Amino acid sequence: MQGGSISISSLGGIGGTHFTPIINAPEVAILGLSKGAMKPVWDGKQFVPRLMLPLSLSFDHRVIDGALAARFNAYLGQVLADFRRVLL
Predict the structure, then answer these.
(1) How far is C-alpha 86 from the geometric centre of its chain's CA atoms?
(2) Which of 2, 15, 56, 80 is the most exposed place for a label (fewest CB within 10 A)?
């Protein structure tokens, strides 16, 4: 594969909770996925079990503005939280 600008790295099969993926030049970003786990999350009334997937985004600040990368990470989290929206 050639000409990519972002790649994905996963530690899900190995375990671990968070890591900092290293960008593969000449790409400008890499998304790191860790192993998902059920965690208690407060919904305003009670704790409910939710599947949480740790995400880590490394990016080249010379090319990508930090605010844009943060918005991308937040958007990706929203999409993954309710994947049914993607199918509509």
Answers:
(1) 16
(2) 2
Cα–Cα distance between 48 and 24 in angstroms, integer?
Answer: 38
pLDDT tens per residue across span 7-23: 999 987 887 778 899 99
- Show which residues are catalytic: 61
Q: What is the DSSP string of 34-81?
A: ---EEEEEE-SSSEEEEEE--EEEEE-TTTS-HHHHHHHHHHHHHHHH
Collapsing DSSP to helix, strand or coil, 85 comes out as helix
Are the C-beta atoms of 55 and 31 separated by less than 8 Å?
A: yes
Give all domains of the chain, ordered by start, each with its CATH number. Answer: 6-87 (3.30.559.10)
Mean pLDDT of 14-38: 89
Q: What is the pTM of this model?
A: 0.80
